[in-house]
């Protein structure tokens, strides 16, 4: 198969790309970088695009069997200023719309488009158990996820099977949240955020990769799919297990008011929000989780 991928240089994109190459897929990467001597133009494995200008090399997309779209500015790496919220929005909605419209116009569209989304779709919902049939929540990130998924409508209307991967926190060895959390916890400075009672929906990198490939392959998978482990954890449990994994106590809480002072709106929507999502559609389809508990996920991420 020839598979088009955006976000191939990110943590999850690299891992999914490696998995697909191992089984013989030919990957085409969507790239926005200008050509250089080290990376000349018109490489056989690259397709150029400029989504902010609505430009994409559509002729290079003919013959693509499937597409995986993972682009999006990092949610938790910056304070949510007005400018960064625009970047978060454009990097998701605009890119999804440009890609979906291009795929829809092909003479022979791909069979499937697997696109990233997030469990942030559900918003702050306390102890409520959330599956793919649960409605959207409220707040900036929930509204962003709703519009993000809607931006793929041109592909859906063209008869392409569209899957929205509502990803939880991905626990992996090569970046993401673990890259920021592990050094703090190794110093014994980690602890619960706020009350620690908020639910965290998480997934190991290995299971996130397998779930994405599963959704690519299985024609039953369409629409939203919660890519989270079967057992969400409260923040208190999550931080305790991470402390245990690095053999350090995790007893220093970060008060809610301090997080709000440091991170503003992002604190309430990304750090203190409670989202108890479960992977109903994956479980109903018989997807086998290999790292279904936090101890397994942390051990794999830390190379133990």
Short synopsis of the structure:
The protein has 304 residues and is an alpha/beta fold.
**Helix residue percentage:** 25-40%
Report the portion of residues in β strands: 15-25%
Low-confidence stretches: none
Can you count the helices?
11
Number of strands: 14
Order of helices and strands: EHEEEEHEEHHEEHEEHEEHHHEHH
Strand adjacency order, main sheet: 4-3-2-1-5-6-8-12
Outline type: globular
Computed CA radius of gyration, to the nearest angstrom: 19 Å
Oligomer state equals single chain
First and last CA, distance: 34 Å
How can the largest sheet be summarized? 8 strands, mixed
What is the fold-level CATH name, i.e. the topology of the domain at 2-171 and 201-230 and 278-284? Answer: Rossmann fold
User: According to CATH, what is the class of the domain at 2-171 and 201-230 and 278-284?
Assistant: Alpha Beta
> By CATH's scheme, which homologous superfamily of the domain at 2-171 and 201-230 and 278-284 applies?
NAD(P)-binding Rossmann-like Domain
